Amino acid sequence: MAKTIIVSNRLPIRIEKEDGQKVYKTSEGGLATGLGSIYKEGNNIWIGWPGISLSHEEEEEVEKELINRNMRPVFLTEHDVDEFYLGFSNQTLWPAFHYFIHHMRFKDEEWEAYYNANRKFADAISKWLEPDDIIWVHDYQLMLVPNMLRKQFPNVTIGFFQHIPFPSYEVFRMIPWRKKLLNGVLGADYIGFHTYDDMRHFLSSCHRLAGYSYERNQILVKNRLVEADSLPMGIDYDKYLESATSQLAKAKEISYRDSLGKQELILSMDRLDYSKGIPGRLQAFDKFLEKYPEYQGRVSLFLIVVPSRDQVESYKALKEQVEFLVGHVNGKYGTINYVPVHFYYRSFPLDDLSAFYRMCKIAMITPKRDGMNLVCKEFIASRENEDGVLILSEMAGASKELSDAILVNPNDENEMVEAIKRALEMPLAEQKRRMKIMQGTVKKYTIFQWVDLFMNNLKDLKERQQSMATKRLDDELKNSITKDFKKAKNPIIFLDYDGTLMPFNENPDDCAPDAELSQILHQLAVKAKVVVISGRKAATLEEWLDEFNIDLIAEHGIKTKRAGAKWEVNGNLQEDSWKNEARDILEFYIQRTPGSFLEEKEHTLVWHYRKVEKGLGDLRSSELSSHLKHFMTNKGLDVIEGDHVVEVKPSVINKGKAAIERLKGEKTDFIMAFGDDRTDEDTFEALPNDALSVKVGSGFSYAKYAVENNEEVRTLLEKFVMEE
Ligand code: GDG
């Protein structure tokens, strides 16, 4: 039976050594809870690192134990952990993705370790993978895994979820291995982010740095439909509510309260991380007590910092900074019976957390950046009496869902100071109104709903891929078409040129046929009528292709030249009086778009933007197209948006009409057409039903079949002319 394989850097269990004995400690994390409903079922498994480096003998023993718990280990050496995890993951990707560019470092050896560790994960997955399994890879430590698997198993179903933000393309582009990282993730079919902005940034990086175009949230990667999506992660609401209303949590609250005194408490709880904005929060609290001294003695900050990555220098420095600030505030405002900041540098069991969520009326969660932030959702779920106030950073993914919090910019100290005052003074009715709305949201979008949605969307996408993939020209079809071609007495083949027979070149004048193509055309012309049907100028086609003794159709059908004969101009053409006006418009866009240029053909005008900065070229081409469409009303012209070109031409002309014209009076028993862009769609659409049509590249098409690129076209044509 097909199974689901969850993959993350850490397993939902960690092994620790106590007095030389291995102890298995389960993780209480949100992800482990949510995915627990999956990996514990049937033959499903979770693959990841168990959190400790072991000897070979120990590894065997641990693997056996983990198999009983539906887990499979990936063993990492201490070197892997230093370079892959603490190094590349946490000192290159983490700071980049959280916009801490001054903390980023780029080390070749750490990149290599990242690659090798990802390979270890991919190998472990391959070891357990069976046909029809679904793989769900988690987070930034494993960005290369999806494509490593895709190369090995082209049809496997892979989902990827990124738990941290995805930065703007301007920041992501700074990483030397950016393209490899993007291609790594694009090996997945369905790619989830917490917010729409993260998704948008990812798509824009794919477009601008890796050259993929996208429509809405979909990208075609080598003919495979890949979808990015925004899917905010939730929590196990009932678990937090139940824990907060348990007798144990209530008893703990009473005992802590007794020791703490009467102060109002503001909860701050994070892992030790510079992205969480802990110093900024302390500084704002300091400012608050200074600006509103009447609150000194009446309110305290309950500051929990959970140890994390403290072998990394920047984290060590952060810890010292936090300790310094705590000391500073306590020294400045503390009295015998007033502690302004209660500071704990350690983790607590859930009952304690629940007691904290109960006893602190205000939670102040003000990260500088956070993918989602689950603590604020847990606080909301734990507020049994629907009171309390959440001060939340607008830089946390959660802020997109929790607009009834007091939202603050964590870099604006004054705003944070005022937010503390507002929270402390918020009337109970207002607190309840806001809290109820937020509870409604957090209760509705739980971790379980998130898991279901992700899995359903992934399966759905796979089905859509399969229905699209029926068009691919596979080997069996290629063989049977080749047989038909060889049997035919009078075959005719229409070939577009650029993108179909030749790859695109930065310089359009540099595309004369190479030796391989020349040989194919020579041989093909002996066995079939060959018609090159292109948007190019007649003179260019003649210079490059006349020697092959084939038919040429230039400028989308304006001029036609039979093999060995002279050029003829299409009889339907009117005067070109529109050209002067259209040229002025194009010149206007050339001035505003560095790198673009005009190509003037006898009966058409073409604006090229292949060399223009990516986003700008797209923007200007759509502006230009709509400008031209407006100008052309009733002028009998067409505007065609091709591959990095916008072309204006008389509408009486198109490749489809030219192809039909060429077929008149022809007694043919095999018609086939190849083309790659919008203009070739006219050919595919116009040809008789029994004609074969092949789209080169990705995208929807009228063609019956699709191949990947011009090399695949050449290979098929070579097959046609090969002697038996
Ligand atoms: C990453 C992204 C995204 C904390 N202290 C204790 C404790 N915790 C638990 C909390 C919460 C979890 O740890 C922290 O989750 P966050 O979401 O706040 O932050 P990250 O660890 O940075 O997680 C983040 C998340 O992935 C999910 O996609 O939201 O943006 O950075 O559940 O309760 N748990 C216990 N004792 C503690 O002392 N038991």
Automatic annotation (TrEMBL):
Task: Name a biological process GO annotation.
Answer: trehalose biosynthetic process
Q: Which GO terms describe its molecular function?
A: alpha,alpha-trehalose-phosphate synthase (UDP-forming) activity; trehalose-phosphatase activity
Q: Which reaction does it catalyse?
A: D-glucose 6-phosphate + UDP-alpha-D-glucose = alpha,alpha-trehalose 6-phosphate + UDP + H(+)
GO CC terms of this entry:
cytosol
**Keywords, in A-Z order:** Glycosyltransferase, Transferase
Q: Which InterPro entries match?
A: Glyco_trans_20 (IPR001830), HAD-like_sf (IPR036412), HAD-SF_hydro_IIB (IPR006379), HAD_sf (IPR023214), Trehalose_OtsA (IPR012766), Trehalose_PPase (IPR003337)
Q: What class of enzyme is it?
A: transferase
Pathway field of the UniProt record reads: Glycan biosynthesis; trehalose biosynthesis
Q: Which domain of life is it from?
A: Bacteria
E.C. number: 2.4.1.15
Q: Which Pfam families does this UniProt record tie to the protein?
A: Glyco_transf_20 (PF00982), Trehalose_PPase (PF02358)
Asked if Nuclease is a keyword of the record, the answer is: no
Q: How does it assemble?
A: Homotetramer.
Family of this protein: In the C-terminal section; belongs to the trehalose phosphatase family.
In Swiss-Prot or TrEMBL terms, this protein is called: Alpha,alpha-trehalose-phosphate synthase
Native source organism of the sequence: Marivirga arenosa
